[in-house]
Amino acid sequence: MNTHEYDLATARLRELRAEADTAGRVRRLRAARRWARRAEYATRRAARASAAVR
After folding, report:
1. Which among 2, 8, 35, 41 counts the fewest CB atoms within 10 Å?
2. pTM of structure
C-alpha cells in the first residue's frame, strides 16, 4: 500500500508541476504582449513628437 500512495503522490506532483509550468508560460506571454504594446505606443508617440517638431 505504501508504494501505491507514493505513486499517487508523485503523479499528483507531476501534474501540479505541469500546471505551474503552463501558468508560468501564459504569464510570460501576457507580459511580452503588454511590453510589445507599450513599445508600439512609445514608437507612435515618438513619431508624433518628431512630426510636431518639423
Report:
1. 2
2. 0.62
